[in-house]
Specification:
single chain, alpha/beta, Rossmann fold, 6 helices, 7 strands
């Protein structure tokens, strides 16, 4: 089978899958783009924030996006990648009820937020109300440590966490585009493997 054929087969296997992404910053915006490039064409995207100049060092936005809702700016970029992508945009701060509602509509839920409280809210809501839904989260991305410390760990049968599980931006460590995007690639790859039935990421 040729490379073209294998790529076509992969895209066909993913085309009807649905993924929810909560948080469209350095993780979520890049995860969304990688999933669309791989063939996932149904995304639920949730983020209440607007693009700020400080986002441009690691998030998939451009200078002309400053001041726009992240949901709208990212949607335009994803449609440039694949005009067939179907997007449900939620431009509000999500609580437990919204997280559960998103989770009931998707095959995999991605936690990609910056706030520790929101991370916990997403994972707790999924565990309590959506026990059969696979969830991919992130923890420990800050700093300039080795890229090899960013790994994907299966914490339970339905929860995978990407990162080194220790480094935190709140301790003064910077968020470097290279390390954040490595983590985003881990999240996207875990999602693809889960969607394809490869339950060990």
């Amino acid at each position: 089978m040729s490379e073209v054929d294998t790529q076509r087969e992969l895209r066909e296997d993913l085309a009807d899958k649905r993924v929810g992404i909560i948080g469209l910053g350095g993780l979520g915006s890049n995860v969304a783009a990688m999933l669309v490039r791989t063939g996932v064409l149904h995304l639920v995207l949730a983020d209440f924030d607007v693009v700020d100049e400080s986002n441009l060092n690691r998030q998939l936005y451009f200078r002309e996006d400053i001041g726009r809702l992240k949901t709208e700016a990212l949607a335009d970029t994803l449609r440039r990648i694949d005009p067939d992508v179907e997007l449900d945009l939620i431009a509000t701060r999500v609580g437990e009820a919204e997280i559960v509602a998103i989770g009931r509509r998707v095959d995999v839920l991605v936690e990609a937020t910056d706030c520790a409280d929101t991370k916990a809210l997403v994972m707790n809501a999924a565990a309590q109300h959506l026990p059969d839904l696979p969830c991919v989260a992130a923890s420990g991305l800050a700093g300039l440590g080795s890229a090899n410390t960013v790994v994907t760990t299966a914490l339970t049968e339905r929860l995978w966490v990407v990162g080194d599980l220790t480094s935190d931006v709140s301790t003064g460590l910077p968020l470097a585009a290279s390390r954040v995007m490595i983590a985003a690639a881990h999240e996207a790859h875990a999602v693809v493997r889960i969607l394809l039935g490869m339950v060990e990421p």
